[in-house]
């Protein structure tokens, strides 16, 4: 009967919970409850309920993590009886999307730091005009010395 078993919303946004009941005869009344509380009254506080025939929507304005997270129960009644379903609402912090980005930035900084430290500690080979300087012999390798003859 619940359109979705679970809904997600971001803090400060409007959350929409939906229930449908394809019964015959049509539903005559819908009620919404937050688990363990009194029925939610349409237009009370941040709640707006829109019901038409076999469908109802509960809109919760300006979602709040502490107050709005939890189970909501919709109850449908017609001439044959009543039935209900539960929808779980999860509210995410506005900063939830920021954490993966910060993790990537931290990872890049750690890698750059490791590479920088490695390059600083590595024993450098000095290069002079394409020739290597041999620090033990004090000579350039790959260079041939020849004496020229005067004419």
TrEMBL record:
It is a single-pass type I membrane protein. Pfam families: I-set (PF07679). It comes from the Eukaryota. The chain crosses the membrane at residues 97-118. Its main location: membrane. Residues 1-92 form the Ig-like domain. GO terms for biological process: axon guidance; dendrite self-avoidance; homophilic cell adhesion via plasma membrane adhesion molecules. InterPro entries: Ig-like_dom, Ig-like_dom_sf, Ig-like_fold, Ig_I-set, Ig_sub, Ig_sub2. Keywords: Cell membrane, Disulfide bond, Endoplasmic reticulum, Glycoprotein, Immunoglobulin domain, Membrane, Receptor, Transmembrane, Transmembrane helix. One of its GO terms (cellular component) is basolateral plasma membrane. GO terms for molecular function: cell-cell adhesion mediator activity. The keyword Transmembrane applies. It is found in: Basolateral cell membrane; Endoplasmic reticulum membrane. This is Basigin. It comes from Aquila chrysaetos chrysaetos.
